[in-house]
Design goal:
Distance between the termini: 45 Å
Strand content: 15-25%
Structural class: alpha/beta
Number of strands: 13
Largest sheet: 6 strands, mixed
Strand order of the largest sheet: 5-6-7-8-10-9
Length: 309
């Protein structure tokens, strides 16, 4: 059965304008809470790739938390262990660096030891649209001061493993978690290959969640915005890792495989200075919708970008 929200979205698209007349925008990040207005400040970090990515998180997240008075840090950690999965020890490292919630994606099970561990760590998520008997959880309501924030981890299906429908799973999760009523904010990590699928989920969720941020492609996109219904969106947050590489892995073997079309050695993470790529989100305490969103890039080869405040 098609969701009622899906029908509503199609009707609004036909009319060409949202019911409240709002249009998409990307306002300047203002740290409104510092000026006495209620807000939740969230840092979302893209895929952590290997030691360089972990070091970037350790180096920059504590400073960012202090500078921007961040309430919650969400980190996609599925490539933290040599580019393939993560371990219990590395989860601890990232928590010690300031991460509150760890999300994953298609590499979540690459390190087999994570399978018995994930049920013991409620802050480590795997995609919620895995089959129901899969170990672990795909969402978490996390307490931030006196407020609750829902973090949802989903995985796309286009050019990815054939999991359950992420759109339907999101609908199911939102039935019991109404933005601005049951929870103060809702952040969705959509781990997907296709930009079209990510954009579609952003519009599908618009007005019902605080943010939809894409992961998996390891390259930050330049489309951070607030959608017409008030949901922050960026197609891909990028990665935390060495950008003198092929999506975080040593560039010579990766390039050789494209040139020769022959299998080669197992890819290894590049080991130069990493860039922390992420997104800074400010939500409104009353509605739970996004008030401001901006990309974050710090360290390594990419041009530095930090929100002004």
């Amino acid at each position: 059965m098609a969701s009622t929200h899906g029908a509503h979205l199609l009707r609004r698209a036909t009319e060409g304008l949202h019911a409240d007349g709002r249009r998409g925008l990307t306002p300047q990040f203002t740290l409104a809470r510092v000026r006495g207005r209620g807000a939740v400040i969230i840092l979302f970090c893209g895929d952590v790739v290997g030691r360089s990515g972990r070091d970037a998180v350790k180096q920059h997240v504590p400073t960012l938390r202090r500078e921007f008075a961040i309430d919650l840090v969400v980190v996609n950690a599925e490539n933290a262990a040599g580019g393939f999965g993560l371990t219990e020890r590395l989860c601890g490292e990232l928590y010690d660096a300031g991460a509150d919630i760890l999300t994953t994606g298609n590499h979540v099970w690459d390190q087999r030891q994570i399978i018995p561990y994930i049920d013991r760590d409620p802050c480590l998520l795997r995609p919620a649209n895995f089959p129901k008997a899969t170990p672990g959880a795909g969402s978490r309501v996390h307490r931030v001061g006196g407020r609750s924030v829902l973090i949802i981890n989903l995985m796309g299906r286009l050019f990815m493993d054939a999991l359950d429908d992420p759109f339907a799973r999101l609908d199911d999760l939102l039935v019991d978690h109404r933005l601005g009523e049951d929870v103060a904010a809702i952040v969705v990590d959509f781990h997907a290959e296709a930009s079209s699928e990510k954009m579609a989920l952003g519009h599908f969720a618009d007005g019902r969640v605080s943010a939809v941020f894409g992961t998996h492609c390891h390259v930050p996109t330049a489309d951070a915005q607030i959608l017409p219904g008030g949901t922050a969106y960026q197609t891909d947050a990028g990665m935390c890792g060495d950008y003198d590489s092929v999506i975080g892995m040593h560039k010579e073997p990766a390039t050789r495989r494209f040139v020769t079309k022959m299998p080669g050695e197992r890819p290894q993470p590049a080991e130069g200075e990493g860039t922390l790529c992420g997104i800074l989100l400010e939500t409104d305490d009353l509605s739970g919708l996004a008030r401001a969103v901006e990309p974050v890039r710090i360290g390594g080869r990419l041009a530095r970008h930090l929100p002004r405040h």
